[in-house]
Write a structure and sequence with these properties.
There is one protein chain. Helices cover 65% and strands 0% of the residues. The protein has 6 helices and no strands. The longest helix has 32 residues. The protein starts with a helix and ends in an 8-residue tail after the last helix.
Length: 198
């Protein structure tokens, strides 16, 4: 039962995209990474520029594919534990999470660059939602990487939702989640896919 709960939890945590946290200090404060997203592809949009819907969809699809890969990798680890909790090697499980953390960390710059490109060409209003999701990803992903890297037992993963205990990370996750849901109103009719992972 616990393993099944963790599988469901992982799908929602990994990409609030994702998803992510930092260990609390003894004082209970959670350090918040301070990475901001600034469009560099198109510094200023010309008056009357309605954006490029097709290119926006391409970039958001790229981000969604990365998110799907991360969720699938996480669930693969947890399903292996759920199917054979006695036979699953704790050392192998910890190593798998460390590998996943490295993959998330390595893909973050590419993910943020895709958000940057999408926001730069998105229709007015949609660019703001993309930046909100990107900002949440920039804040939450390093924290998730740290949490995955410091897992010492399978039970540690059960407490991973605690990385959102701090108000700043909670706020970042909430804002990104809401913006992600709003982006569905754009991606569903224009891109043919649901962006959020609700």
């Amino acid at each position: 039962m616990r393993s099944q709960r963790l599988i469901v939890m992982s799908a929602s945590i990994v990409f609030v995209v994702a998803a992510c946290g930092a260990r609390q200090s003894e004082s209970g404060a959670v350090p918040v990474p301070t990475m901001s997203i600034v469009a560099t592809t198109v510094p200023e949009r010309a008056a009357g520029d309605d954006g490029d819907i097709e290119q926006t969809c391409i970039e958001l699809r790229f981000v969604q594919d990365l998110a799907d890969q991360t969720t699938a990798s996480t669930n693969e680890i947890l399903q292996r534990v759920a199917m054979d909790p006695e036979g699953a090697s704790e050392a192998d499980t910890i190593a798998a999470f460390a590998t996943l953390a490295a993959e998330i960390e390595a893909s973050l710059p590419e993910t943020l660059a895709a958000y940057d490109r999408a926001a730069a060409v998105a229709p007015p209003g949609i660019d703001d939602e993309i930046r909100a999701v990107a900002d949440g990803t920039a804040r939450l992903s390093p924290a998730l990487v740290e949490a995955f890297t410091t897992i010492q037992t399978v039970e540690d993963f059960a407490n991973i939702s605690g990385i959102f205990a701090g108000p700043e990370l909670q706020g970042a996750a909430t804002d990104a989640g809401i913006a992600s849901l709003r982006l569905d109103n754009f991606t569903n009719p224009n891109c043919g896919f649901q962006f959020s992972n609700d």
